[in-house]
Amino acid sequence: MKRNFNLCLIAGAIAATSLAACSDDKMDDNVLPQQEVQSATIEQPGELEKICSYVDNYWSSSAVLKTSLQNSTDTNFMNSQMTKIASLWGRSNPTLRFVDDPSNFNSTYNAISYSTGKIYYGYAIYYDAKSKGGDIVNAMILAHEYGHQLQYIFGLPSTSENTARPNELEADGFAGYYLRRPNGYNKTNFSEIAAAYEFAQSIGDYQTSSPNHHGTPAQRRSAVRLGFLLGQYDLNASNFDYNFFYYYQGVLNGTYKMGKNIANPEIDAYMSQYIDELKKIQTGEISAEEFKNLK
């Protein structure tokens, strides 16, 4: 990542002032170690981060980094979701920060997951998502971004293409999985998830040859549905990856009926009843409205 420096005025203990450099190298010192744990606490900002509104070159030059949203209710919701998502996978929290831009609010319509163990979440995307679909939409977006953290940690996805599609579709699957799991968001009615996901899937695109291609809207709907279905089972990240691409590659290329998932026969028996449905979602034969009403 490009290294940026920002000079911040520091008030000393004796009311003296001095200049200090705020670099991303220093910020990374605050990242929690990548160790598997059963519970996690919210990481507090380091002293340097408290005094420096440091972001990076992925955000506008007027954007500022914050440890809270506009009110404590929103902040507590996101922090609690971060802990719950990480705990679902038996891991500690990444660094969750929020990005505001008083000069250009809409410039923060983004959420970024960094390989250095950080997730930066924009004010604009948070409040737009909440206004259109409620808390579940932001829980889903955050679970998607944490899915990228799992990819960084475990070297996933196991499938590679010339575009970002497998990374993004698997992260969609991780989100669908989290929303269903009893120790996750615990939504067993898919229509609740699908209605919220219509907001997030709007970032699907048809630029299939672009390196940043994320998958078409129909493919992204199919991916979150597959993740939701796999939420029937307790899987670790690697097992999720294996099963996700076992079925999703079949959905994409139509070869899923040529073999059985002998590594997970119980899952295969369950999934076999949904394969044709997944393919119809992926091809667009199941409309967005029909998708919302799946059971």
From TrEMBL:
SUPFAM superfamilies in UniProt: Metalloproteases ('zincins'), catalytic domain
PROSITE patterns attached to this UniProt entry: PROKAR_LIPOPROTEIN
Residues in the signal sequence: 1-20
GO MF assignments: metallopeptidase activity
One GO BP annotation of this record: proteolysis
Keywords, comma-separated and alphabetical: Hydrolase, Metalloprotease, Protease, Signal
UniProt name for this protein: Metalloprotease
Organism listed in the record: Chryseobacterium pennipullorum
